[in-house]
C-alpha cells in the first residue's frame, strides 16, 4: 500500500479540492430539489443547512493538511445540519473528514478518536431511547454508528496497514543496506588478505633481487657478480612460480597442478625458508639459525591449527625479509616455542644498527600485515629495538593462541 503524505501546509491536496467541490455542488442540488432527510428542528430555518454544507466543504479541504482542525469544523457543522433538515452530502463529507482525522492525524488522535466515537454512539442511542421508547431506536443507533464509528475504525484499519507497509519497506531497506555493508566489508577484508599474501610471497624474493643487483653493480669482482646473478636468477624463478600459483588460486581456488607447492605453507617449511635466507644474506655478512623449541607433547602434538601455522610462517618470512633489507652483519635467530598457556610464540632476533653495503628500501607494509594477521587471530604482537646479549637487536615477537579465531568461526 502506498503511504499517504500530507500536502504542503496551507495548500489543499487536489483530491481534497475535488471532494469538497463535488460535495458542495451535490448538497446544493439536493437542497434545491428539496431532498432533505427530515424537517428542521427547534424552529431553525432550513437555509442554515447550506451554512452547515459550506462549513463541511471547508473542512473537507483541510482533511489532509490539518485533519484535527477539519474535524473541529465538521462536528458542529454536522450538528447544525441535523437540526436544520440533514443533507446527505453533508453527512457523507463528515464521515470522510472523520476518516481522514484518524488516518492523517497524530498517533494520539488516532487512538482517542475511535474511542470517542463509541462513547458518542452509545450515549446518543441511550439518550434517544430514553426520550423516545420505540423499537426504531435500534435503527437510529445503527445509523449513528455508521456515521461515527464506521469511518473512525475504518481509518484505524487503513492506518495500521499503512504503518505496517512502511515498517516492512524500512525493514527491507535496512536489510539491503546491511547486506551492502557486509558485501563491502567482505570485499575490503578479502582485498586486505590478498594484499598480505601478495606482499609475503613476493617481498622476500624482490628484496634479495634488489640487494644482489646493487651488489653486482657496485662490486668490481667477476666471481661476486656471478654469485649475485645466480641468487637473482634463483629468486626470480621462485618469485615467478609463486606469483603464478597465487594467480591460479585467485582464478580457481580448487584448481591444483601436480608440481606446485601446497597452497598453505606450514611450519615444516621453516627450515627451507631459513636456508633460502642463508643463501640470500651470505654476501651481507648475515647468518641465520632456527631454534624450534616446541614441545612434542604440546597442543596438537606441536602442530597448531592451519590459520595459526600460516600466520607464524608469514611472520618468520617477513622478519627474514626485513633482516635481509636492514640488519647489520651478524646472526639472525628464529625461535619457536610453546608458552605456558599453550600459545605458540614466534621470535625473530636480528642485529640492529648500521650495515655496510647495499640495502633494499622498505615501506612498512610488512609490519602492518603482521599486526593484521595477529589481530585477526586474537594474539599479541610487538616489534622494535631491544637489548640483547650482543648489544642492541631488532626483535619481532608474536604470541599466537592455540586455536585461531578464524577457525573458531
Write up what this structure looks like:
This protein is an alpha+beta fold and 409 residues long. The chain has 2 domains: 14-173, no CATH class; 178-408, Heat Shock Protein 90 (2-Layer Sandwich). The protein contains 12 helices and 5 strands. It has helices at 14-32, 48-61, 67-83, 88-104, 107-131, 137-147, 149-218, 222-251, 270-281, 306-326, 365-377, 405-408, and strands at residues 286-293, 330-338, 344-351, 380-388, 391-400. The protein has a 5-stranded mixed β-sheet with strand order 1-2-3-5-4. Helix 4 runs antiparallel to helix 5. It is rod-shaped, with a radius of gyration of 43 Å. The two termini are 41 Å apart.
Overall body shape: rod-shaped
Quickly count the domains.
2
Helix content: 55-70%
Numbering strands along the chain, what is their spatial order in the largest sheet? 1-2-3-5-4
Number of strands: 5
Q: Tell me about the largest β-sheet.
A: 5 strands, mixed
* Uncertain spans: 1-8, 256-262, 405-409
Helix-strand makeup class: alpha+beta
Number of helices: 12
**Overall CATH architecture of the largest domain:** 2-Layer Sandwich
Order of helices and strands: HHHHHHHHHEHEEHEEH
CATH third-tier fold name of the largest domain = Heat Shock Protein 90
Could you report the average pLDDT, rounded to the nearest whole number? Answer: 81
**CATH superfamily heading of the largest domain:** Histidine kinase-like ATPase, C-terminal domain
Amino acid at each position: 500500500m502506498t503511504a499517504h503524505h500530507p500536502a504542503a501546509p496551507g495548500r489543499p491536496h487536489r483530491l481534497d479540492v475535488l471532494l469538497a467541490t463535488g460535495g458542495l455542488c451535490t448538497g446544493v442540488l439536493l437542497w434545491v430539489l428539496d431532498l432533505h432527510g427530515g424537517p428542521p428542528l427547534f424552529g431553525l430555518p432550513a437555509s442554515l443547512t447550506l451554512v452547515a454544507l459550506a462549513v463541511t466543504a471547508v473542512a473537507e479541504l483541510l482533511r489532509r493538511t490539518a485533519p484535527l482542525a477539519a474535524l473541529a469544523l465538521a462536528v458542529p457543522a454536522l450538528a447544525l445540519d441535523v437540526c436544520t433538515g440533514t443533507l446527505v452530502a453533508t453527512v457523507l463529507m463528515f464521515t470522510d473528514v472523520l476518516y481522514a482525522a484518524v488516518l492523517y492525524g497524530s498517533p494520539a488522535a488516532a487512538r482517542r478518536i475511535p474511542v470517542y466515537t463509541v462513547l458518542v454512539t452509545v450515549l446518543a442511542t441511550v439518550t434517544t431511547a430514553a426520550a423516545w421508547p420505540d423499537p426504531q431506536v435500534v435503527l437510529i443507533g445503527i445509523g449513528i454508528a455508521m456515521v461515527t464509528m464506521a469511518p473512525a475504525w475504518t481509518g484505524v484499519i487503513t492506518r495500521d496497514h499503512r504503518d505496517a507497509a512502511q515498517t516492512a519497506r524500512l525493514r527491507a531497506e535496512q536489510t539491503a543496506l546491511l547486506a551492502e555493508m557486509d558485501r563491502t566489508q567482505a570485499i575490503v577484508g578479502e582485498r586486505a588478505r590478498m594484499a598480505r599474501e601478495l606482499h609475503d610471497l613476493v617481498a622476500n624474493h624482490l628484496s634479495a633481487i634488489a640487494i644482489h643487483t646493487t651488489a653486482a653493480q657496485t662490486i668490481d669482482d667477476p666471481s661476486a657478480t656471478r654469485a649475485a646473478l645466480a641468487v637473482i636468477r634463483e629468486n626470480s624463478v621462485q618469485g615467478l612460480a609463486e606469483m603464478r600459483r597465487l594467480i591460479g588460486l585467485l582464478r580457481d581456488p580448487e584448481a591444483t597442478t601436480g608440481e606446485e607447492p601446497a597452497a598453505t605453507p606450514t611450519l615444516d617449511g621453516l627450515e627451507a625458508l631459513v636456508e633460502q635466507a642463508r643463501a640470500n644474506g651470505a654476501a651481507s655478512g648475515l647468518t641465520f639459525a632456527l631454534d624450534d623449541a616446541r614441545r612434542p607433547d604440546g597442543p596438537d602434538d606441536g602442530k597448531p591449527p592451519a590459520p595459526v601455522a600460516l600466520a607464524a610462517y608469514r611472520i618468520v618470512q617477513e622478519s627474514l625479509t626485513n633482516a635481509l633489507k636492514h640488519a647489520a652483519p651478524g646472526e639472525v635467530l628464529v625461535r619457536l616455542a610453546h608458552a605456558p598457556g599453550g600459545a605458540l610464540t614466534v621470535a625473530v632476533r636480528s642485529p640492529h644498527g648500521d650495515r655496510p653495503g647495499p640495502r633494499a628500501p622498505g615501506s612498512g607494509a610488512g609490519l602492518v600485515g603482521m599486526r593484521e594477521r595477529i589481530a585477526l587471530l586474537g594474539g599479541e604482537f610487538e616489534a622494535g629495538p631491544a637489548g640483547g646479549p650482543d648489544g642492541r637487536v631488532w626483535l619481532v615477537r608474536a604470541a599466537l593462541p592455540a586455536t585461531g579465531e578464524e577457525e573458531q568461526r
